[in-house]
Amino acid sequence: MATMKDVARLAGVSTSTVSHVINGNRYVSENVKKKVNAAIEELNYAPSALARSLKVKQTKTIGMLVTASDNSFFSEVVRGVERSCYERGYSLILCNTEGNITRMISSMETLLQKRVDGLLIMCSETQRLPSDSLRRYPLVPMVIMDWSPFDTCYDIIKDNSLQGGEMATNYLIGRGFRKIACITGPRDKTPARQRLAGYQKAMQDAGLEIPMGYEIYSDFEFAGGFSSMKQLLQLPEPPEALFAGNDAVAIGAYQALYQQGLSVPDDISIIGYDDIAIAPYLIPPLTTIHQPKDELGKLAIDSLLYRMDNPESEPKQLMLTPKLIERSSVA
């Protein structure tokens, strides 16, 4: 494999001149540029990203930890992050933790050993990381997206789940429903607890009773919505409407109703959360609370780049505003 020295020798210039031509960081005459570029082409020379990163102490690479899920919310956020990285001249290395705390720690070690310039963390593990997990890498800039399995003093970007849960429930109340159930995610995840709290607040403010069995902690997956909806249908008085903690849960609930010969919204109305890509294409299209996934990705990268340039600045907590998307799943 050709080196920069080989290019310099063939072009009859110094290695620093070759570097200036490649990086465009200093004036080089057109005649010399032609010689260098001709030598590069003849030798099929490719600059070493590793060598450059060691010299400038920057890899132009961002690492991201994310949990795999059937819920496309995660992949849609990752797509927004990758697009924002590309637009800013960075590459993204993605590590899937598979919901396993041991794998998460291993993946974090791998990313940090590869000297990523910064790290984005968006995981849904229910266990907490050991407190010393990050102690060996205290200077690596990090941004937490939505939720993470450890307490940190890093920048955090999250959805206002309390407001979103209240907004969803108030919408159902405004459409005349009184018997409203809620299926939320695991109780040890902040978004799940906050969305449930928003539901409870809206019900209380409206003076509506929440019958026993109407609140279900599940997971944020299709199967959780399916089994939880079946559980609600077995109650002596099933609900008239459902606030699903995310769209995956709502889709699972659709299937449970279909298998029982019931329909949305004729028998039970449903509102979801996230506004994933498939939501408008369900039958009927899903009314839901929109999370600005592209904005989340852009904000995460912008926050991380700012943290990389300003490591001493105070950690920030940024809150995204949810928005109601009205479709056809609520009668």
UniProtKB/TrEMBL annotation:
Q: Does the keyword Repressor apply?
A: yes
Span-the-membrane segments of this chain are none
Q: Which Gene3D superfamilies match?
A: 3.40.50.2300, lambda repressor-like DNA-binding domains (1.10.260.40)
Q: Which InterPro entries match?
A: HTH_LacI (IPR000843), LacI/GalR-like_sensor (IPR046335), Lambda_DNA-bd_dom_sf (IPR010982), Peripla_BP_I (IPR028082), PurR_sensor_dom (IPR057343)
Question: Domain HTH lacI-type spans what residues?
Answer: 2-56
Source domain of life: Bacteria
Give UniProt keywords alphabetically: DNA-binding, Repressor, Transcription, Transcription regulation
One Pfam family here = LacI
* Keyword Endoplasmic reticulum applies: no
Protein name listed in UniProt: Ribose operon repressor
Q: Which organism is it from?
A: Xenorhabdus taiwanensis
Gene name tied to this protein = rbsR
